[in-house]
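LOG
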Amino acid sequence: MTRKPIIGITPDINDIEAPETEYVVRKNYADAVLSAGGLPFILPFGAASDLYLQEIDGLLVTGGMFDIDPKLYRQAARIAYVMKPERTAFEKALIEGARNRGMPILGICNGMQLLAVCLGGGLVQDIPSEVEGAFEHKPAQSASITHHDIQVVSRSRHLDLAPGTVHAVNSVHHQSVLPADSYDVLAAASDSVIEALEAREGGFAVGVQWHPEYGASQIDDAVWRGFLAAAAQFSSNIR
């Protein structure tokens, strides 16, 4: 039997005081990995990132209702922030370690933003106040419902996406990624907000601003298939 690639999933952590503190991650992240042919494993913050990277074949950096410290992308804070330094430091170490190993990385929403920061990029701190003509990217509706269109604007090295195609996606974010020399913009919304990126060099390192774990868009399947195919190839090369 062919070995399924092991996908490490980063969880969030609640704000309940110890000993009742909990790691939390939505079930549909794990379900999406399982459906795409992988084995999902949740990665608690306590262990050294290198120990996890020795065991997994792909890294899934999930979204979350918090922001990345602007100091990490060379900016001063322009708005009030809710930050989770422990989680961000843990995910940053995982991303950097995975990049060094050539391990596939998929960043979703906040995970895409942190991937961009790790690749040397920066962020729009607040879309409504900084992007002229932007529409609402954090609507008051379930993420199981698509909210706006994106257009694939360049050809991916790893995902089967046709440039010029338009897809309706869900949306749950108030920040976005700025362009940088280290990654290509794969998709954008009509208001210029970047919706997907891919590292220009090295192995699979893709970020999407929407939430493909809900399976709300036709493009989601291509994201999961590409990620799991890269993880399977990585596994076959090192095992």
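LOG (cont.) second protein
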Amino acid sequence: MTWQSVLKKTGLYLLKIIIVLILITAAFIGGVMIGYGVIGDGNSSMDVFEPELWQHILEFIL
């Protein structure tokens, strides 16, 4: 096994991890936007990005 093949396999492994993390993040953002704006009481889906909303949510959790 050469260094080139090791680096190639490691690079592909890291690329897969990065792609999965991007897809998880996109699914989370899309789910929160749909859950708050369409299903929930929010007026707009973009309201989910306001810091006041997240502080209000954290008050319930903490």
